[in-house]
């Protein structure tokens, strides 16, 4: 079994990945600044194979990686709106810190480095289906930083330091670090709260989607795969492509409550992209399992039973806005939790 370091391991996808890694009997070190509370990882306290390092990745000491075999790099100011709050800060964390961490990892002998990128790098593809060789057209700072990170890290890749980038689709589903700032989760919450969904624009903008559990499973598949299959590779990771309007219709059709759909004036967000997921299935034999409808039902049941609920901490943009306003997310802070 490997020693896996997970940056952002207390996050929406990260805590699920930690669960799966420990289940697979890996030793896991999480690096996270813990701004979203203690509860996502609380169940692992006392596990001798689990260690938590409360640290901003921008100032992570090289010694933390001294005996690490694999890095799963998930730490970032997540989603496009959050990335626009402070462009300089986003570049520091989402690009410069990642490039620094990869250089350190290679220098100390880490064997595999798995980067969480995003399908948002495709931006607008005019109805064409984008695969991993397609042009990227980032529309936001968040997407631009993913492009820069991929380029910098993949340039370091070789047979002794295998770098792999996963371009994750828009994520949905239940997590202990719940997010209600993602399309499917937002719509499910709105249906539960007021029986009404609001779509900005005509609802015809396309997005790819993937469940958080499947993102974590994709990373685990890359850890198990022969190194020659993942070295220097990019994989799109998703279960399917839908328009925003189609997602709203699925929420309405799937849930056992009355739901109305309203159309609001178009927003400034012009992203519209459709993505192919054939490569990850062909090369790694990996195929996401959780459907959009299953994710909708999962979140609905969790809301109805009190397993999850809407709160300040579930809206990433609000949390980061508060941290920036309070000057608690400055350059090279030692701890941010």
Q: What strand line-up does the widest sheet have?
A: 3-2-1-4-5-7-11
CATH topology call? Rossmann fold
CA distance, first residue to last residue: 30 Å
Number of helices: 11
What are the SSEs and their pairings?
Layout: E1 3-7, H1 14-23, E2 27-32, E3 50-54, E4 70-73, H2 80-83, H3 87-108, E5 112-118, E6 124-130, H4 141-154, E7 162-168, E8 170-172, H5 183-194, E9 196-200, E10 206-211, H6 212-224, H7 227-230, E11 233-237, E12 240-243, H8 244-254, E13 260-264, E14 272-275, H9 278-284, H10 292-305, H11 316-325
Parallel strand pairs: 1-2, 1-4, 2-3, 4-5, 5-7, 6-14, 7-11, 8-10, 9-13
Antiparallel strand pairs: 10-12
Helix pairs in contact: 1-6, 3-4, 5-8, 5-10, 8-10
Task: Output the keywords.
single chain; about 325 residues; alpha/beta; Rossmann fold; 7-stranded parallel β-sheet; 3-stranded mixed β-sheet; 14 strands; about 35% helix; disordered C terminus
Structure description:
The chain has 337 residues and is α/β, with parallel strands linked by helices. It has one domain (3-325): NAD(P)-binding Rossmann-like Domain (Rossmann fold, 3-Layer(aba) Sandwich), CATH 3.40.50. Helix content is 36%, strand content 22%. The protein is built from eleven helices and 14 strands. It has helices at 14-23, 80-83, 87-108, 141-154, 183-194, 212-224, 227-230, 244-254, 278-284, 292-305, 316-325; strands at residues 3-7, 27-32, 50-54, 70-73, 112-118, 124-130, 162-168, 170-172, 196-200, 206-211, 233-237, 240-243, 260-264, 272-275. A seven-stranded parallel sheet has the order 3-2-1-4-5-7-11, with helices on both faces. Strands 8-10-12 form a three-stranded mixed sheet. It has a two-stranded parallel ribbon with strand order 6-14. Helix 1 (14-23) crosses helix 6 (212-224), helix 3 (87-108) runs parallel beside helix 4 and helix 5 packs across helix 8. The chain is globular and about 55 Å long. It starts with a strand and ends in a 12-residue tail after the last helix. Mean pLDDT is 94; it is low at 331-337.
């Amino acid at each position: 079994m490997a020693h896996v370091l997970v940056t952002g391991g207390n996050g929406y996808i990260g805590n699920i990945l930690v669960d799966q890694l420990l289940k697979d009997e890996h030793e896991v070190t999480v690096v996270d600044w813990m701004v979203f509370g203690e509860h996502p990882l609380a169940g692992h306290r006392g596990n001798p194979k689990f260690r938590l390092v409360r640290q901003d990745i921008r100032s992570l000491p090289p010694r933390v990686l001294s005996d690490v075999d694999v890095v799963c790099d998930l730490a970032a100011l997540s989603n496009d709106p959050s990335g626009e709050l402070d462009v300089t800060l986003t570049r520091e964390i989402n690009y410069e810190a990642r490039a620094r961490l990869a250089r350190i990892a290679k220098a100390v002998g880490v064997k595999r480095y798995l980067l969480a990128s995003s399908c948002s790098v495709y931006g607008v593809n005019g109805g064409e289906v984008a695969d991993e060789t397609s042009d990227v057209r980032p529309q936001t700072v968040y997407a631009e930083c993913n492009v820069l990170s991929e380029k910098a890290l993949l340039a370091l890749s070789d047979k002794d330091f295998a770098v792999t980038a996963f371009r994750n689709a828009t994520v949905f589903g239940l997590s202990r670090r719940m997010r209600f700032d993602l399309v499917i989760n937002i719509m499910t919450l709105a249906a539960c709260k007021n029986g009404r969904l609001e779509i900005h624009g005509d609802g015809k903008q396309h997005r790819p989607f993937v469940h958080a559990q499947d993102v974590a499973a994709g990373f685990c598949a890359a850890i198990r795969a022969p190194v020659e299959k993942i070295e220097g590779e990019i994989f799109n990771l998703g279960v399917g492509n839908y328009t925003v309007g189609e997602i709203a219709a699925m929420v309405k059709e799937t849930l056992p409550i009355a739901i109305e759909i309203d159309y609001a004036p178009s927003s400034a967000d012009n992203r519209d992209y459709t993505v192919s997921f054939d490569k990850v299935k062909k090369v790694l034999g990996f195929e996401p399992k959780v459907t959009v409808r299953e994710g909708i039902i999962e979140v609905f049941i969790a809301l109805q039973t009190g397993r999850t609920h809407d709160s300040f901490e579930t809206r990433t943009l609000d949390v980061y806005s508060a941290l920036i306003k309070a000057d608690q997310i400055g350059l090279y802070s030692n701890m941010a939790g």
